[in-house]
């Protein structure tokens, strides 16, 4: 914990020093105000999510929201502080007399405008169309639409309002099948019942399928707060998912088919769903994948864009994933693109299998959104030349 506290504090040190050093404000109260502000950010980043996991109510939800905002705020202030140092270096080399405030205020203002733009961007919902070659699937699927959404994170950062927007958007797309890629809920429950009532309206001729996300797995595994559950989460231990948990309430409220290392056949296509979040579940997920019939057309729903090689080897033709949010914060989107080799967003090919990773359909812990956009994905089964 001390190492984490030290590293995060040092990350905050540059923007704090920049404010103290370059703004012409008397050191006394201003110095302590800046120090107090950044120490609060450190606290929020280290303990904010734990507070939300252990507590209920408006205070816990507010702490969670502030902790998410703090991460993106400090990241942007850190980046612009580096830029400001470069600007001051150029001014020093050039021998110009320009005050620190004249350079710091515009640079920090840009950072705050980016944050404001990210707050507005996080409330938008786009539609991305992915045409798929239907000739590798049963002919009855040609011309059909599968609408895929993921990572709504209802409960703390989102609520009934954004659920209403999502449901209206999906209904306007006239899907034949709807698939939820997980992380439906997150954090203190918020307006849990009202959100469930709106989501229950989702329907399609071929039904609604869903898998759990890692946030569902941890936050829906409890009726209340628990330090024991928090420790289980950190150790990737199996979570209780019985009748007394919120997951049970979700399944009773939503007439969806939840697939947890299970499969269902719909009109001659196998739809398989994974639940690989605990160490034990991950082992069972891999065993389940290895048992798939490679001769049957299979679409895999996996919250994370993982188990890709195993899925391709098992003969899966299409994997739908989320989790990454497409890299919702600059420059983490670039880092994520490099680390995940382009699998963080959009369509990639892995042998004969297609992987499509959604950028998510709701506000996440990466908030505000300063890169990319929220979306629902329409998989178009087509034999046209524009297919993937």
Summarize the structure in words.
This protein is α/β, with parallel strands linked by helices and 388 residues long. It has two domains: 2-121, no CATH class; 126-382, Metallo-dependent phosphatases (Purple Acid Phosphatase, chain A, domain 2, 4-Layer Sandwich), CATH 3.60.21.10. Helix content is 46%, strand content 15%. It is built from twelve helices and twelve strands. Helix 1 crosses helix 3, helix 2 packs across helix 3 and helix 3 runs antiparallel to helix 4 (100-121).
Judging from the principal axes of the Cα atoms, what is the shape? globular
> What is the share of helical residues?
40-55%
- Whole-number average pLDDT? 87
Order of helices and strands: HHHHEEHEHEHHHEEEHEHEHEEE
Oligomer class: single chain
How does CATH name the architecture of the largest domain?
Answer: 4-Layer Sandwich
- CATH superfamily (homologous) name of the largest domain: Metallo-dependent phosphatases
Please give the order of strands in the largest beta sheet.
Answer: 1-12-2-3-4-5
Give the SSE map:
Layout: H1 2-22, H2 27-54, H3 58-94, H4 100-121, E1 126-133, E2 145-149, H5 160-172, E3 177-180, H6 192-199, E4 208-210, H7 214-219, H8 227-235, H9 246-253, E5 257-258, E6 262-266, E7 269-273, H10 279-290, E8 298-301, H11 308-313, E9 318-321, H12 332-339, E10 346-350, E11 353-357, E12 375-382
Parallel strand pairs: 1-12, 2-3, 3-4, 4-5, 7-8, 8-9, 9-11
Antiparallel strand pairs: 2-12, 6-7, 10-11
Helix pairs in contact: 1-2, 1-3, 2-3, 3-4, 5-6
